[in-house]
Design a protein that fits this description.
single chain, 333 residues, alpha/beta, 12 helices
Length: 333
Amino acid sequence: MQRDTFDRPMRDLRISVTDRCSFRCVYCMPRELYDDHEYLARSEILTYDEIVRFARIAVGLGVEKIRLTGGEPLLRKQIEVLVAGLAAIDGLEDLAMTTNGHLLAKRAEALAEAGLGRVTVSLDGIDDEVVRAMIDTDVSVDVVLEAIDTADAAGLGPIKINTVVRRGWNESQIVPLVEHFRGTGHTVRFIEYMDVGTTNAWKSDEVIASAEILRLLSERWEMVPVDPAYAGEVASRYRMVDGSGEVGFISSVTEPFCGECSRLRLAADGHVFTCLFASAGTDVKAVMRSGASDDDIAGLLRAVWEKREDRYSELRGAVPIEFPRVEMSYIGG
């Protein structure tokens, strides 16, 4: 397994398969900036064969887990073909996908049959009015809830529900979300509003710390911490003492976890990044399309990872950061 300058292993690979999305979430793709956005041309996006080849090489270097992201990955046509190709890679232990759930109900069974193991669904509340304001799109919460049930029935559960919490927008949904999913086996994970990219109008005073959310939940349910399920798990987990479920917290702003970050990121256009908050990546697509061998690509990935020294969340505000940073819709959350 490859190690970076802080001795962090390359264990996880996140693959953004498209930079397009059907939602216009205010913390990711604000409508005023993305309705006229120029997206990647088809020729610029990695083919499924190229993605599978890259993933196979990465697994050979120690990657154990792959997560498909976007944009919205289910906008990519016949993504089940990609899932099947990735699921067949010898040595891959876990294959998952993060989706907004809009198209999931129609695709869940085919995804499971192709070899997808799990899905994480983004959902920022239970109330339609609050959620529509967050996603700036006329989609009912019931559509996403139906998708969660369908995916669970197809064998893609238990499901993680990712909720970005932004002060003044959706903090009223914290308790109702936990109440709704309590007893289902699914886990709500609250994500601190992060300064990814430069277009989401991030303000530190709109961040609701995970500790504050935990205190709020603890007023209603007795909560106790849960040991990490694996090395480098980014979410801190707490279970309800009454046995009705657990919640998770992803605290990149107030409790950075850079020291255990093991993620390599592949953008839809074939650039490789070693941090969610990166300013630049390495163009692997150009190398692949120039006729490079698998060994050549493996050598490039080793070199990229071995010089990795990213720890933006630990340094946030302490040192000047190069701008512009890549956007979450491009690199994957």
